[in-house]
Amino acid sequence: MSERTIQVGLAGFGMSGQVFHAPFISADPRFTLKKVYERTTDKAKQAYPDVETVRTFEELLTEDIDLVVVSTPNQYHVPMAAQAMRAGKNVIVEKPAAASSREAEELCQMAKEQGVLFSVYQNRRLDGDFLTVKKMIESGRLGEVVDYECHFDRFVTGQSAKQWKREGGKGINILYDLGIHLIDQAYALFGMPDEVYADMRKQRPESSGIDNFEVSLYYPDKKAILSASELVAMPGPRFMVHGRKGSFLKAIPHNAKSAKM
What we know:
With about 260 residues, the protein is an alpha/beta fold. The chain has seven helices and eleven strands.
């Protein structure tokens, strides 16, 4: 193994770049955060003095960059990922990778043709609550799962502070923002479903697109319900999992008359 670290170019330094990408890249000794693409600000330079700030995306595609992380508004994910791969760069793109399965498949095919690595950043597979649910399911403590339900509810007023979210467009709504995490978590647990049903709505006049959804994934032996809303003032449980023939009840003390979760 080479001692050389992977040189990273980060496209975008908004909330995602500042919170979900730069801190982890800079903390891992296998990587060096070398360049950050910011159109007008110098926030990356202030947080990471050794980083070079560039004003064009093309400046991330130079020979000294091995990996490009795309953390820009959704509409730029596909063209930037494709441009980086055509330049011979390995690419990690913030979710959603694309607004359609066709575009996502084209990116995967391009990665194969260019001989580079391509992946999607799905950080919520590592959320503590999800990992706890995953552990309980895999241990068999909940028995054979028959129903799985996951919510990502909020109470939102007014318009988004981000201009590109206010303007909306293809692939810019709560389903692509939050729903994609819930779908990915369900896929990580149960794999590809046999059937999918979705109910999507716009309930707030200020929203630029869908702000409420319920997606049902149907498997031969179970159903997964994934939902999110921006009009939930008092959210309930994040996860609800029902199983049969589980050992959970065996763990309840004999003198306990009831148990709440």
